[in-house]
């Protein structure tokens, strides 16, 4: 198990992994269709997307959380 103090990083890793996996698969399919070696092309696209998504979420999450709180808690 990972310490609770790393919850933010674990959450970012999971969310960026799930989102980049699903989105890269959808976009690969939209752009190429069901082609030979689709799975390998998708995995390559996912690895690139994940390498971008994970650090982006780490940087953007605090701002997004503050903005979400402001939007959700209107007087």
Structural features, described:
The mean pLDDT is 92. The chain is mainly α. It has helices at 7-32, 38-72. The relative contact order is 0.14. It contains 2 helices and no strands. Helix 1 (7-32) packs across helix 2. Helix content is 81%, strand content 0%. The protein starts with 6 loop residues before the first helix and ends with a helix. The protein has one domain (12-72). The radius of gyration is 16 Å and the shape is elongated.
Q: Note the gap between the termini.
A: 40 Å
Low-pLDDT stretches? none
Shape: elongated
The count of domains is 1
- Work out the strand percent: under 5%
Report the strand count: 0
Number of helices: 2
Backbone structural class: mainly alpha
User: How much helicity do the residues have?
Assistant: over 70%
Mean pLDDT, to the nearest integer, reads: 92
> For the report, how would you describe the main beta sheet?
none
Radius of gyration: 16 Å
Order of helices and strands: HH
Topology:
Elements: H1 7-32, H2 38-72
Summarize the structure.
By secondary structure, the chain is mainly α. 81% of the residues lie in helices and 0% in strands.
Key descriptive features of the protein:
mainly alpha, elongated, single chain, 75 residues, 81% helix
């Amino acid at each position: 198990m990972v310490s609770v103090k790393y919850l933010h990083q674990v959450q970012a890793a999971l969310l960026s992994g799930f989102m980049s996996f699903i989105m890269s698969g959808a976009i690969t399919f939209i752009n190429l269709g069901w082609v030979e070696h689709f799975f390998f092309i998708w995995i390559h696209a996912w690895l690139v997307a994940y390498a971008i998504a994970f650090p982006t979420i780490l940087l953007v999450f605090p701002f997004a959380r503050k903005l979400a709180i402001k939007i959700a808690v209107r007087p």
